[in-house]
């Protein structure tokens, strides 16, 4: 479902942010992407939603070469992706429910459908009671869950989350990971960039490790590197 073939990324000459990445992520997988700061985790994610372009190599999403997608198809690709940014990017002049509704409103969905989907997303992240709050009046962990609800409200096929628990304490991080598990159980492919070894231990899953732009290990949960 996501395929990388000899993918390289150079932001500046003579320095590879990603260096010959070859990897296949199957539909429905739950994968951690790890590695030190600067290893290339965010870059790899940005290439999937085409915020950045590879310098070399091919990326296929759903068997389509995303480099070759015309504008309309790119739009469709982006709609099939849910993205959780580390800094949440919530709007403080809107309520929690309105923030979650944004992707659907952008797509021009009908009001009744938007209300139904927002209600479901709120329930999934356990925030129904916060629907009319504004983001700055709820806790950091709750804001993180709002960002997750917004990422999944459009029923994406793939959820990409970049350091989604970077600002949370362990207890809240575990709560957020349980939500990711629930999302994954609904058939959504989940790719999470994280430094958090404790959480990776607690939720053993396939783990891709980057080191200075190279994919240095691809480990099944607790299994061997291959
Ligand atoms: N826009 C950019 N312009 C130039 N260099 C960049 C840019 N974005 C990232 N880089 C460089 O590419 C490399 C990989 O960065 P990236 O942000 O992908 O790492 P990361 O693994 O996500 O790190 P972190 O854990 O700190 O978020 C780093 O050397 C970084 O400095
Ligand atoms: Mg990063």
Explain how this protein is built.
By secondary structure, this protein is of the alpha/beta class. Helices cover 34% and strands 24% of the residues. The protein has helices spanning 41-48, 71-79, 96-106, 111-124, 140-152, 170-185, 197-202, and strands at 2-9, 18-25, 30-34, 56-61, 64-65, 81-84, 158-162, 189-193, 206-211, 214-219. The strands form 2 sheets. Strands 6-7-8-3-9-10 form a 6-stranded mixed sheet, sandwiched between helices. Strand 1 (2-9) and strand 2 form a beta hairpin. Helix 3 (96-106) packs across helix 4. The radius of gyration is 17 Å and the shape is globular. The two termini are 20 Å apart. The mean pLDDT is 92. The structure holds adenosine-5'-triphosphate (ATP) and magnesium ion. Adenosine-5'-triphosphate is lined by residues 11-12, 17, 35, 37-43. Magnesium ion binds next to helix 1.
Task: Provide a compact summary of the structure.
The protein is an alpha/beta fold and 226 residues long.
N-to-C span: 20 Å
In total, the number of strands is 10
Enumerate the distinct ligands: adenosine-5'-triphosphate, magnesium ion
Helix content: 25-40%
Mean pLDDT level = 92
Report the radius of gyration as a whole number of Å: 17 Å
- Shape, principal axes of CA atoms: globular
Number of helices: 7
**Uncertain runs:** none
Assign the structural class, choosing from mainly alpha, mainly beta, alpha/beta, alpha+beta, or little secondary structure: alpha/beta
The helix/strand order is EEEHEEHEHHHEHEHEE
**Binned strand content:** 15-25%
Strand arrangement, major sheet: 6-7-8-3-9-10
Main sheet overview:
6 strands, mixed
């Amino acid at each position: 479902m996501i395929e990388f073939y000899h993918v390289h990324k150079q932001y500046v000459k003579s320095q590879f942010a990603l260096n010959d990445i070859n990897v296949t992520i199957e539909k429905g997988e739950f994968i951690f992407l790890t590695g030190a700061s600067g290893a290339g985790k965010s870059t790899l994610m940005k290439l999937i939603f085409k915020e950045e372009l590879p310098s070399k190599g091919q990326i296929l999403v759903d068997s389509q070469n995303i480099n070759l997608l015309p504008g309309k198809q790119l739009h469709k690709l982006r709609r099939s992706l849910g993205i959780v940014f580390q800094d949440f990017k919530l709007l403080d002049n809107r309520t929690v429910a309105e923030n979650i509704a944004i992707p659907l409103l952008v797509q021009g969905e009908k009001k009744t459908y938007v209300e139904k989907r927002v209600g479901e997303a709120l329930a999934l992240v356990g925030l129904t009671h916060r629907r009319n709050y504004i983001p700055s009046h709820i806790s950091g962990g709750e804001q993180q869950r709002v960002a997750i609800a917004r990422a999944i409200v459009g029923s994406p096929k793939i959820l990409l989350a970049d350091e989604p628990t970077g600002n949370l304490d362990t207890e809240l991080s575990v709560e957020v990971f349980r939500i990711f598990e629930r999302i994954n159980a609904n058939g959504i492919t989940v790719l999470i960039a994280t430094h958090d070894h404790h959480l990776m231990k607690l939720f053993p899953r396939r783990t891709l490790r980057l080191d200075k732009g190279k994919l240095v290990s691809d480990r099944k949960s607790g299994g061997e590197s291959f």
